[in-house]
Design brief:
453 residues; alpha/beta; Rossmann fold; 2 domains; 6-stranded parallel β-sheet; 41% helix
Length: 453
């Protein structure tokens, strides 16, 4: 087959779990003899117009089509963020020129649902992954502006405040929305649907946000299948109106060849080494790990090392650094390319995942389990599912610094708990096993469509 994989971001500019998954999947599909191209959005805010330009290159053997456009210069930046007609027109021609047989949407962000609608116009089969909550949440995380967990876009006023807090270009409106009660914001948003508001630029932005959920449900009706890596995420989608018969649960797999050598290269230590790996931002909860470590009564030489991007949320990291500086046992290890994951994990005894949002199924947890490293995770979302499935560690209540400190202290006092947990970890699913699921889904999708027109 000739397969187009679309994703919101890609190497080398971005290197998160979704990007790692996308690259590995593309390489495996290519190894099976399929023609594969990755389409990503290299920039959606820096060009001079919403018109699409593109460049082509190859990354680790995979052809990459990188799109550039500026959604902020679009007639309606809010609606273009979830459906960009300019990207749709570009992709329609690209799919034709490439001779695509199937489109797999790894993540629709930045590229928008145009990846789906362009394929639908050509009667191409479309399968989409649900890597996070983008389809049901304007900010993807189901984490509200007041840092409370959210069940979905039932109250559009909360969506508006979250949207404004997430967008740097909307900062000038924060003083207003933060001072108004939610009920008044909701009343005002409904007034924006009035015909006499059609000429107001601000009202049109609000209208677009109000219409986002219905648009998503209509688009998802047209895809052949939605692949969810966890039962938890499937449940959230169904609760928010996504047809359950569209969703197939297929846990991600990883390339774990490197994990087989971990036992030979593992660095011995006379103390327990705790590690955080991920984006260093508030939603990932790095501060909870640092605060818990600072409350230990008997650290006994145990260390906490933080790895990850510290620039995306630079202000947060500066505040966090002041807490880290008070404890010589806490260090920042910087960023590292994914090719060094085995080297990094060889010096880790326990991975700490104190996220305050509904993490889905983080790739780094799969990688830790593959290396027989137990995980401490927040008792929320797909993380609980992974801990239970692989018998791979322990959970603690969301945001509870004291509970995490007690758990960490227990492992320091009795390090045999760590080795026992390591021995219990079940084998991690391979990417080949996940790919076998996808190939059946792809074949069913292609069998149910008439093909390209």
């Amino acid at each position: 087959m000739r397969i187009v994989i679309t994703v919101n971001a890609f190497f080398p500019r971005s290197s998160g779990g979704t990007e790692v998954y996308t690259l590995s999947l593309a390489q495996h599909l290519k190894a099976l003899g399929h023609d594969v191209v990755v389409v990503t959005c290299e920039s959606h805010v820096s060009s001079d117009s919403p018109e699409v330009t593109a460049s082509e290159d190859v990354w680790q053997g995979i052809s990459v089509q990188r799109l550039y456009f500026n959604v902020l210069r679009a007639p309606n930046p809010v609606s273009y963020a979830y459906h960009n007609p300019c990207v749709e027109a570009y992709l329609r021609e690209f799919y034709r020129d490439f001779g695509a047989n199937l489109v797999y949407v790894c993540h629709p962000g930045n590229v928008s649902t145009a990846a789906i609608t362009a394929a639908r116009e050509l009667r191409l089969p479309v399968v989409t992954a649900a890597m996070d909550f983008w389809y049901i949440c304007p900010v993807s995380q189901l984490l509200r502006h007041d840092r409370e967990l959210c069940s979905g876009p039932d109250n559009p006023a909360h969506c508006l405040v979250c949207y404004i807090h997430q967008r740097r270009t909307a900062r000038r409106y924060r003083w207003l929305v933060d001072r108004l009660p939610i009920w008044l914001l909701e009343w005002g948003m409904q007034k924006c649907l009035s015909p006499w508001m059609a000429h107001s630029w601000h009202a049109r932005m609000v209208q677009a946000l109000l219409r986002r959920k219905d648009w998503m449900l209509r688009v998802l009706e047209e895809v052949d299948c939605i692949v969810s890596p966890s039962r938890f995420l499937r449940g959230r989608l169904v609760e928010n109106g996504v047809p359950p018969d569209k969703i197939v649960v297929s846990a991600h797999g990883i390339d774990a060849d490197w994990a087989r050598s971990i036992s030979q290269v593992r660095c011995p230590s006379d103390h327990v080494r705790f590690t955080f790996i991920g984006m260093i931002g508030w939603h990932k909860g790095a501060h909870i790990a640092v605060q818990a470590f600072n409350r230990l009564e008997r650290p006994c030489g145990a260390t906490l090392t933080l790895y990850g991007d510290n620039q995306h949320f630079a202000r947060y990291f500066r505040q966090l650094s002041r807490q880290m500086d008070r404890n010589p046992l806490i260090t920042y290890g910087g960023r590292f390319p994914h090719s060094q994951i085995a080297e990094v994990l060889s010096g880790v005894d326990v991975l700490v995942m104190p996220s305050v949002w509904y993490e889905n199924t983080p790739m780094v947890m799969y990688e830790a389990f593959a290396a027989k490293i137990p995980v401490i995770a927040t008792h929320e979302g797909g993380m609980v599912e992974l801990i239970d499935e692989f018998e791979g560690g322990w959970t603690f209540p969301r945001g509870d610094v004291d509970a995490l400190a007690v758990l960490v202290q227990r492992l320091i006092d009795c390090p045999q708990h760590v080795s026992e947990a390591s021995e219990r970890i079940k084998p991690v699913r391979t990417l080949d096993e996940h790919l076998a699921d996808l190939m059946m889904i792809y074949e069913q999708a292609c069998g149910g469509r008439g093909g390209q027109t």
